[in-house]
Amino acid sequence: MPPARLADPERWWWPALALALLVLLYFLSPILAPFLLGCILAYICDPLVNWLERRRAPRTLAVLLVMLLLIALLVLLAVILVPLFYKEVKLLAERLPGYLDQVNAHLVPWLKERFGIEVQIDAASIRQLVADSLQGTEGIGLKLLASLKIGGLTVIGYLVNLLLVPVVLFYLLRDWQRLLARLDRLVPRRWHATAREIAGEIDAVLAEFLRGQVSVILAMSAFYTLGLWLAGLEFFLPVGIITGVLVFVPYVGMLTGLSLAMLAALMQFGASSGLVWVGIVFAAGQALEGFLITPALVGQRVGLHPVAVIFALLAFGQIFGFFGVLLALPASAALLVGLRHLRGRYYASSFYRD
């Protein structure tokens, strides 16, 4: 590069400004989570808003209808699942002392006989603790109030973040097309064609990834719930849903669900064929997900390696907290497109070729 061009201050002004912006975003990361989640939801919901707008609905009205539909779906899901989870947890708490008596009667002698390990679980103390916890809602309310006094600011922070998400979502959906047009005008003209090409690829990858991953989660949640129900597991619903929701984390989700299911089966069935049926359900689920459902619904275009998925979840969770875990995989899929183009430029460069 000629020395005169290197000395041009304008040539370094814009990269320096971009770097300063990235540093600012890093320091603002604790408050960025609701805005990023709002962006992801706006991206997902924009096609439905456009569909309503093509049918002569005003843009603002279409946005409100889509948001009401989204809220209704979340409320319906909570109304259906929360009572079921509460029932299962209460049943587990009531039966836990009996399960512990079985452990003391069967598992503890076996451990002592085979490995020389002496373990004794105080079932009476745990039974009293469970009974105190289930006495009524008054004690629970007092405990919640006490905890709110300790962590009140944290709770308020989470509530503010949750309330910010629909506000950000509304304004982003309403002005989505104008925001995209303004971003398009800001791209330098010499990079405009390449930037539009990369943006188009990111759009295609994200659309395929989000649609496919949601479909995989729903399909595997239904499979594990039905399979564990057929296996006779009492806690089939929470274990099946937790396993299905965690399938986006390679191996970790399946191992977590398998551990929970085996623990529940051991307490319910003991060392019997029930454990075998639970294992068969998870083996079939892993094979079904790996060889049929994920290739069919997500495809191979995203191409995130399992180690990259785990690293992305940990990294985004560290920076943005819980919301970062939700944003990790879509953001990683978008970054992957940029890295592919960067790899192509590297292979074409004189540094690599010569």
Account of the 3D structure:
Helix 3 packs across helix 13 and helix 8 packs across helix 13. About 2% of the residues have low confidence. The chain has 354 residues and is mainly alpha-helical.
- Helices and strands, in order, run as HHHHHHHHHHHHHH
Largest sheet: none
Total helices: the number is 14
Question: Based on DSSP secondary structure assignment, what is the total number of beta strands?
Answer: 0
Dominant shape? elongated
Which key features would you list for this structure?
single chain, 354 residues, mainly alpha, 14 helices, 86% helix, elongated
Topology, pairings included?
Elements: H1 3-6, H2 9-27, H3 29-54, H4 59-115, H5 123-133, H6 137-174, H7 176-186, H8 192-230, H9 236-245, H10 252-269, H11 273-297, H12 306-320, H13 322-348, H14 350-353
In short:
The protein has helices spanning 3-6, 9-27, 29-54, 59-115, 123-133, 137-174, 176-186, 192-230, 236-245, 252-269, 273-297, 306-320, 322-348, 350-353.
